[in-house]
């Protein structure tokens, strides 16, 4: 019983730290959706981030309750703590499953989206709808093309009506320090050569993996807290169990 009190008190403080970690992951994902949402049309894209933020908010009072119960047992506080732990466990398991699904689904969607933007890029009309999106992605990620800069060779030669040997890459591939860069293939050092697809996939995969492991770790801690609370409840005399 003494160990259960100590563990519950310790876990109460840990919950505050994990709340910060979950909130960080959730906000990070929401900001990524804001930055790259134009690559996807689905309105539910920020859902994992929202769930992570909600779970983080609920974790704060849960931590306070865990510390309070460890200091002085109260049947109402113990019952409320059990409810909160159950809600959090459901939220985090849902989030962990969503993170895995999104990681696979978004990689597939991303490949087709970037491929579409490269294929429909029109060098003769800089204001074409697809152009601005691809230009923004390339400038933001400091990349060029889908797989690498060679993706532009046949595409620009066809859409800009240039001979293959005179093909250019878009100016959005140029490095900032080269002010006079025009995407000329004779000056490879002036533009980024790494593809955008891998950079985006790595970012998305890392954030999803971060949130997945946060959920797994927090779920294990919550189960430990539930067991500790259950031990204390066993030794507590309850005259009225309706609160459960």
UniProtKB/TrEMBL annotation:
Alphabetical UniProt keywords: Membrane, Transmembrane, Transmembrane helix
Short name of any one Pfam family annotated for the protein: Tetraspanin
Keyword Transmembrane helix: yes
Its membrane topology: Multi-pass membrane protein
UniProt xrefs under Gene3D superfamilies: Tetraspanin (1.10.1450.10)
Transmembrane found in the keyword field: yes
Entry protein name: TSN3 protein
Organism: Haliaeetus albicilla
Name of the gene: Tspan3_1
């Amino acid at each position: 019983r003494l160990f259960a009190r100590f563990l519950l008190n310790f876990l109460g403080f840990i919950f505050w730290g994990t709340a910060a970690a979950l909130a960080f992951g959730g906000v990070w994902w929401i900001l990524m959706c804001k930055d790259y949402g134009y690559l996807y049309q689905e309105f539910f894209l920020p859902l994992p981030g929202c769930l992570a933020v909600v779970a983080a908010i609920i974790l704060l009072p849960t931590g306070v309750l865990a510390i309070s119960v460890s200091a002085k047992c109260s049947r109402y506080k113990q019952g409320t703590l059990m409810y909160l732990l159950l809600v959090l466990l459901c939220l985090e398991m849902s989030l962990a499953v969503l993170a895995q699904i999104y990681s696979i689904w978004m990689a597939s969607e991303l490949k087709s989206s970037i491929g579409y933007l490269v294929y429909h890029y029109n060098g003769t009309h800089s204001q074409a709808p697809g152009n601005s999106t691809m230009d923004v992605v390339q400038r933001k990620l400091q990349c060029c093309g889908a797989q690498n800069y060679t993706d532009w060779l046949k595409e620009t030669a066809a859409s800009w009506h240039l001979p293959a040997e005179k093909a250019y890459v878009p100016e959005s591939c140029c490095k900032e320090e080269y002010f006079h860069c025009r995407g000329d293939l004779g000056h490879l050092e002036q533009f980024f050569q790494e593809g955008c697809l891998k950079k985006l996939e790595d970012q998305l995969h890392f954030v999803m993996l971060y949130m997945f492991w946060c959920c797994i770790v927090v779920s294990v801690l919550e189960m430990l807290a539930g067991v500790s609370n259950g031990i204390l409840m066993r030794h507590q005399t309850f005259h009225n169990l309706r609160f459960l």
